[in-house]
Write a structure and sequence with these properties.
Two copies of one chain form a homodimer. With 461 residues, chain A is an alpha/beta fold. Chain A has helices at 3-13, 24-34, 39-50, 59-74, 133-138, 141-144, 164-180, 220-231, 284-304, 324-332, 364-373, 392-395, 411-414, 427-445, and strands at residues 78-91, 95-101, 105-107, 109-111, 123-130, 148-151, 185-189, 215-218, 237-242, 245-259, 268-274, 311-316, 338-343, 351-357, 379-384, 400-406. In chain A, α2 runs antiparallel to α14 (427-445). The structure holds zinc ion (2 copies). Chains A, B: Homodimer. The monomeric form is inactive while the homodimer is active.
Chain lengths: 461, 461
């Protein structure tokens, strides 16, 4: 029966006739059907298997764009396209470290994005220990110069991921501070919460004029081992080999797909996640699941009929290394009216809370969201929505927002490590995400209220 | 007060006067005091920090012997010595693998002990998939020749570790079977139960006349990724670089320490674990904790007075790569009377069961053990005791045995991986182990019964 799948696909992809606003019962029906969703799993499994790691600006990310365009077209979206931009590209090299004295042994580590390189022979230096970033900041340059600065700390898991902001500063700012004091290199305790010997990478920044020194994260077992070795009170020497490279300007791009709305003046609902990933895992929770959840929900709305507002799904490029895709998108689409934006970039564990940022004239939408999301165990929060690196530049222009906040308790066990792989995705929780996004889109895209501007300061985290 | 610690040490290490058999109340008191033991933690922390990995036959294992002799002397044991022997030594080299086609991406793997090497440029070949070892065995050589055989399976966690025997055959025998069929190399799914990208190594054997081909284990996420890629039905090519080496015959050794007994004719109680470890972790659960638990218990008995039987603590060398230490010990001490042997080599989670192998004339010892161990939550099993690679050659001579069986539910999450590090030791469970061993030794070493031979077939697992 070779015709059947083709016929089924045609039926699914053919836009149904325009409808009036969905009733709460229709929203509930769409939401509950999404609890059996297979589209998000199919995208997550396909992207992580057929592409795997996809570091921003590399050929791997380019292959991911090609894959994404084919997948989004096959799902029946309209206006599927790539919007390219240029960006500087950093690639990982060799990375090895070992304690030379007093207790010789290897250490497991990962270079931070934008890390400088050692020579091909590596460097050897004494380690100087700082329990916190503040201790490094307070240290006189003479204590640090020529040494390997080692900055530890104690990030703990939090359901809302709130520990990432403050603890992440060690990674974001620590290397530049150490460089300014003349450090030969810097090692940090991974910004992570698991005790596996897979270090957590992530981007760091050396401002103009600050020399990029070798900068790497130790896994938690390695960081604690180095602390124990230091506690013995003898001078500790470490040999470090890191050979990452800046390979110049390359092309990256955002992949865009749409569900056309019936009222072009009502503004676009912008949703998505990021297509790029770090290079050591396959980017399953960060962020194959995010692009999958948002596209699956949009597809389910499309299959139910033409919504009032156009839903634009963007699979952003180059988020991890500096949000280049989100910046390029905001610049390219600054002249367009966006009604609302929402982003999924915190894994695929269950959504437990939602927040909104809506103009007063559209406040009733939040009440309807509460009704639609409560059966999924999602409570209404009291924060101002606006999460997400990729939508931040668009939100900064005054666009309304919804956050569907996932349970992040185990997110930082895997985030930015080789362990971010498909097996970390819980299929039932992934489906709950799709149901939440489907319900949210059903309410928001069809809302009869105008959704005007929400003044806000520049956001992002 | 510089004299105080020295005086205290002298008091602790001076053998107390000979005593009669301990009463059940005295045994209980010793057992309960051991629940606050710090000796086992001190040994585990020290060995894993100050030595780290200690692959059999290497300089690292030699440093561990020096460390062990110093530690056991400092604890006040008698006759502390190294008994050396010679053994063939294999060392790890570089190890890299990637899928070349159809979906280029890296794979994480670890060479198996005794693996052959690829050339310095690596080898590239098509992958041929076998769900089980039986499928590989059944395959005609023409399907395998020149290819990379990939053998998967599905080991699951079991409290008693019983899945390791049957599933471990893939690692032990699979490489030789693949070599006989002309395979270019073999990849196996790790013999492990965790989903982290740290592959599980372990020894394999190529019998005389069978060429050692490159043989490595993939982590579970990588093995399942490779299965998904194969499921797409296109030819899968993998590039493999493995450069381990056989470096010839080197010296290894057993470290031995004693608590002298008051009745030399009553036979020796032999206890211990193994000092060597695999090279990627620090060998905390395998088996720093085993040498620590047994030595701590013996030290606590020593501090309570001279037992009837000599307790001999052996920290065996070279267990992981073929039980060379256990074999050398049995050969060197075949002429001595051993009353009983017991080994700790299954991590440091709580002891939940004990078994015995005793002659009928000493059966009452098992009843007294039941009384002494029950308050620790340890039940009496109905198996014949005799676990342990290192004591197996001694047990085979007809020596009685006690097994104190640890909870192995999470053991194969870490076993033979870089993740076998100090943080995996639960201090309260480690103390429960010391209490169990202390109670066992108090009962066994002082038992008034003669403990004669127990006929048994050659044991070991
Ligand atoms: Zn992300
Ligand atoms: Zn072991």
């Amino acid at each position: 029966m070779p015709l059947k799948p083709a016929l089924l696909l045609a039926a699914l992809t053919l836009p149904l006739p325009a409808m009036a606003q969905m009733s709460p019962a229709q929203v509930a029906k769409l939401r509950d059907a999404a609890l059996k969703d297979e589209i998000a799993w199919d995208i997550t499994e396909g992207l992580t298997t057929e592409i795997g790691p996809r570091l921003a600006g590399t050929d791997d990310e380019a292959r991911a764009r090609t894959w994404a365009v084919a997948k989004l077209k096959a799902l029946g979206f309209s206006n599927v396209r790539v919007e390219p931009y240029q960006m500087p590209v950093w690639v990982r090299g060799e990375e090895k470290a070992s304690i030379i004295a007093p207790f010789p042994q290897q250490l497991q580590l990962a270079a931070l994005g934008n890390s400088g390189a050692t020579s091909a022979e590596g460097l050897e230096a004494e380690v100087v220990y700082f329990p916190t970033l503040a201790d490094l900041e307070a240290a006189p340059a003479a204590r640090v110069a020529g040494k390997i600065a080692f900055v530890s700390h104690a990030m703990h898991a939090a359901q809302d991921g709130s520990s990432y902001g403050p603890f992440g500063q060690v990674r974001r700012a620590g290397p530049a501070i150490a460089s300014r004091k003349g450090a030969a290199a810097i090692l940090i305790r991974s910004i992570g919460t698991d005790y596996h010997r897979n270090a957590h990478t992530g981007v760091t920044t050396f401002p103009e004029g600050v020399a990029p020194i070798p900068a790497a994260a130790l896994s938690l077992p390695d960081a604690e081992q180095l602390e124990r070795v230091l506690e013995r009170g003898k001078p500790v020497r470490v040999k470090l080999l890191l050979t990452p490279r800046q390979i110049g300007t390359r092309e990256s791009g955002n992949v865009i797909a749409e569900v056309p709305g019936r009222d072009p003046k009502a503004g676009v609902v912008l949703i998505g996640g990021h297509l790029d990933s770090w290079d050591q895992g396959t980017g399953a929770i960060d962020d194959a699941s995010g692009v999958a959840i948002t596209a699956a929900a949009a597809k389910r709305i499309m299959a139910a009929g033409r919504p009032r507002r156009t839903i634009r799904v963007v699979w952003f490029g180059a988020e991890e290394v500096g949000g280049f895709g989100g910046t390029a998108y905001a610049k390219a689409h600054a002249g367009e009216r966006h009604a609302l934006a929402a982003e999924s970039d915190f894994g695929a564990d269950r959504v437990w809370k939602f927040d909104t940022a809506l103009p007063a004239s559209a406040a009733a939408i939040a009440d309807r969201l509460q009704t639609a999301l409560a059966p999924l165990g999602i409570t209404r929060g009291n924060a101002v929505a606006g999460d997400g690196t990729d939508i931040a530049p668009t939100l900064a222009l005054g666009v309304a927002a919804v956050d569907l906040t996932q349970d992040g308790t185990r997110y930082f066990d895997y985030h930015h490590t080789p362990d971010d792989t498909l097996d970390k995705i819980d299929r039932a929780q992934l489906q709950q995400n799709v149901a939440a996004w489907t319900a949210m889109l059903a309410v928001v895209a069809d809302a009869p209220e105008e959704i005007g501007a929400v003044p806000r300061p520049a956001a992002g985290h």
